[in-house]
Write a structure and sequence with these properties.
Blueprint: E1 8-16, E2 23-32, E3 36-44, E4 56-61, E5 71-76, H1 82-95, E6 102-107, H2 119-145
Parallel strand pairs: 3-6
Antiparallel strand pairs: 1-2, 2-3, 4-5, 4-6
Helix pairs in contact: 1-2
Length: about 160
């Protein structure tokens, strides 16, 4: 990523929760000059406007001596979400080229999926979130390379992610 000059960019989008009828994963990204903040949660269409708990909150940063293994620390731990949150934070650091730290807050619940949160459903949701985030980051990088920051789109509701 060459977004070193970016001061702040924000986007929100949602994805369908895998194997669920009406639940969605809601993603909020904030790219700051020194870090990326990501917040993830699940909700039904009726719950979309309501506040949700923070869940786990993890900080991950590049390791100068071993770039393939970012360092991470849990700032807030909620047992059902800590592993997913840590994996997400570390993967995003690597995907961003080990250039900046990442904060991830996650309260995603896979309990309402078809199999009640099986590993396959969790991995499918994980992949969909990563693909969606990387699409937004790629758009921001392209906009910066074009020289204009006027094209920043907030609220990328319903971003399509194919698997």
């Amino acid at each position: 990523m060459t977004m070193e000059s970016a001061t702040s960019k924000t986007a929100s989008f949602s994805l369908p929760l895998p194997h669920s009828l009406d639940n969605r994963i809601y993603v909020r990204l904030s790219l700051k000059s020194k870090a990326l903040l990501v917040f993830l949660t699940t909700a039904t269409s009726e719950e979309a406007g309501q506040a949700t708990p923070l869940g786990s909150f993890v900080y991950a940063l590049p390791d100068r001596y071993n770039p393939s293994q970012p360092l991470s620390t849990a700032l807030c731990t909620v047992e059902p979400t800590i592993e997913f949150t840590t994996r997400m934070a570390k993967l995003l650091v690597r995907k961003m080229g080990n250039k900046r730290p990442v904060y991830v807050g996650n309260s995603i619940s896979f309990m309402s999926t078809g199999l009640g949160g099986a590993v396959e459903e969790e991995m499918e949701g994980f992949k969909a979130v990563v693909v969606g985030i990387m699409e937004v980051l790629k758009k921001w990088e392209e906009e910066e390379q074009e020289g204009g920051q006027n094209g920043i789109r907030e609220g990328v509701e319903g971003l399509s992610v194919s698997s």
